[in-house]
Amino acid sequence: MKRKRTSIDDPTQGFSPEVLETWRYICRLYHDGYDESDRMVRDEAIELHRMLGLKPWHPFVIDVGSVAEEFEPPDDPSHLRDWLMVRDIRRRLVEAT
Q1: What is the pTM of this model?
Q2: For the chain, which terminus, N or C, has the lower number of CB atoms within 10 Å?
Q3: 17 and 26 in contact (C-beta within 8 Å)?
């Protein structure tokens, strides 16, 4: 019996085209000088959060930092697993763009 295996080399795997487009749009907003305090960025971040199926208690993807940024994980160990999961999602989004 053959087992269906999924390649882990494709960083876009698991992301819909809409998720990737929303992520690219957020990146363009940052590039154009907007920051996380701007309403447009927050609205898009909320939409991305929803599209990724994240829960309200999960941190936002734009708040956890990327591969090149040195954001500290939360001090509370009960939040660490969620933070690491969202950071991994962000890393995959960065790789996909």
Answers
A1: 0.76
A2: N
A3: no
